[in-house]
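Team,

Forwarding the record for the chain on the shared tracking sheet. I've put the sequence and predicted structure together so nobody has to dig through attachments.
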Amino acid sequence: MKVILKQDVESLGKTGDIVKVADGHARNFLIPRGLAMEANVKSIRAVEHDKALILRKAAKEKEKAEALRDRLAGVNLTISRRSGEQDKLFGSVGAKDIEQALKDQGIEIDRKDIVLEEPIKTVGEFAVKVKLSQGVTGELKVTVAAEA
């Protein structure tokens, strides 16, 4: 019997896959637990339509992420902090500070998407990576200046 998987099933496949399984396995295990539904012409068409919608939506999201990546390439954030000897900051500049500076320039990015291995603790210029979408990362320049 052919079934369409509603969820990922480790031994069979991923959501939306059409797989052939034993009749008993489908009727007694997969279908009652909501893991699969019987594959007929109508359900196959519906799944293919849903897959096409998901692919179109993913393509639009990727396009928006690439446009944002290009916009971020031209951004140079300047963040001022008090500093002591040898240009060491009192405190640090973290993802939250960078998120706020981006917000001030009209760019909405969640702080979880800002990749900082550790907070910035010195004065200078730093390249900061930003995760924008699946497979799309951007980079922006952050300048930390000493407050006068």
